[in-house]
Amino acid sequence: MRVLVIDPDPARAALVAEGLAGVDPLDVRQSAIFNAAEALAFGPDVIVVACDSPDRDTLESLREATQTNPRPIVMFADRSEPGLAEQAVRAGVAAYVVDGLAPGRVRPILDVAMSRFSLMQQLRGDLAKAKADLQSRKTVDRAKGLLMKERGLDEEAAYGLLRKLAMDKGRPIGAVAADLLAFAGILKGDGA
Amino acid sequence: MSDRVELRLGFIPLVDCAPLVVAVEEGFFADEGLSVTLSREASWANIRDKVAVGALDGAHMLGPMVLAASLGSAGLVTPTVAPLALNAGGSAITVSRALAAELRDIAPATTPCSAGPLAALIAARAAAGTPPLSFAVVFPYSIHNYQLRYWLAEAGIDPDRDVRIVVTPPPRMAERLRSGEIDGFCVGAPWNAVSVLEGAGEILIRASEFWRGAPDKVFGVTRAFAEARPDTLQAALRALLRAGVWADSPGNRGALATMLASPRYVGSPEATVAASLMRPGAEGQAPVADPIVFHNNAASFPWRSHAVWFLTQMLRWGQIGEAVDIPALARSVYRPDLFRTAAASLGLAAPLVDEKVEGAHAAAWTLDEATAPIPMAGDLFFDGKVFDAGQPLAYARSFAVGRARSPEM
Question: How far apart are the CA of A57 and the nearest CA of chain B, in angstroms?
Answer without folding.
Answer: 6
